[in-house]
């Protein structure tokens, strides 16, 4: 028998499956099923592949919503560039925008409270990455990603950009402070 | 009348799966259409149905 010659019988479909080939197919099928099951399992137990919501928006509309939150809930500013630190009410919608090259504004959230965090980009694709808790999602202009978050670990989480976005990408950072109560 | 000593019989029924796997054009069609539908078409349908932000 050779691979380049026609099969010995016209109806080769009826030829019994060879033991080695049958074993190969069984192992490959088993591994495929394991990898398939791992996807929902890792979604639940690995806390990756977020169940986030996505909406269509525009950079202007999202900037307006973010600015409204900053105007209402700023508690202080930080650094010489006077970055606003915002303390929104627990359970409310929190807005964070990514732009070249910062995450704006800095957020101060209360431990154990749940917030709906809306994130969008003003220019092009960025990668929202919250460390060390390791929550990651891609951020695109024109799309508003919503994560439901409950800060419960640490006092400070740092937002970094993990999608290369230009010369200042490595400096594109933000902060989420976690406090015990109202400011 | 067919003579079994000189060649194949006049009629043999080919199973449907053998006919599919032996036809390179059917395989080409499946290989293009299945990924196009499940990845491209389904993906575009998901993207265009993203709701507008409230």
Concise description?
Chain A is α+β, with helices and mostly antiparallel strands and 183 residues long. Chain A has helices spanning 19-45, 59-73, and strands at residues 53-56, 74-78, 83-86, 93-99, 102-104, 106-110, 115-121, 126-131, 135-139, 143-149, 156-161, 173-179. A seven-stranded mixed β-sheet of chain A has the order 2-3-6-12-11-8-9. A five-stranded mixed β-sheet of chain A has the order 1-10-7-4-5, covered by helices on one side.
- Give the biggest beta sheet of chain A: 7 strands, mixed
Q: Could you give the distance between the termini of chain A?
A: 81 Å
Helix proportion of chain A: 10-25%
User: Tally the helices of chain B: what do you get?
Assistant: 2
Share of helix of chain B, binned: 55-70%
Q: What is the N-to-C order of secondary-structure elements of chain B (H for helix, E for strand)? A: HH
Within CATH, the superfamily of the largest domain in chain A carries the name: Cupredoxins -  blue copper proteins
**Top CATH class of the largest domain in chain A:** Mainly Beta
Mean pLDDT of chain B: 87
Tell me the count of domains of chain A.
2
Shape of chain B: rod-shaped
Low-confidence stretches of chain A: none
The chain pair with the largest interface is:
A-B, 13 and 12 residues
Proportion of residues in extended strands of chain A: 35-45%
Structural class of chain A: alpha+beta
Gross morphology of chain A is: elongated
Describe this structure in words.
The complex is a heterodimer of chains A (183) and B (54). With 183 residues, chain A is an alpha+beta fold. Helices cover 23% and strands 36% of the residues of chain A. In chain A, strands 2-3-6-12-11-8-9 form a 7-stranded mixed sheet. A 5-stranded mixed sheet of chain A has the order 1-10-7-4-5, with helices on one face. The longest helix of chain A is centred in the first third of the chain and has 27 residues, at 19-45. The model of chain A has no long low-confidence stretch (mean pLDDT 93). The model of chain B has no long low-confidence stretch (mean pLDDT 87). The A-B interface holds A 10-14, 54-57, 61-62, 143-144 and B 8, 12-15, 17-18, 50-54.
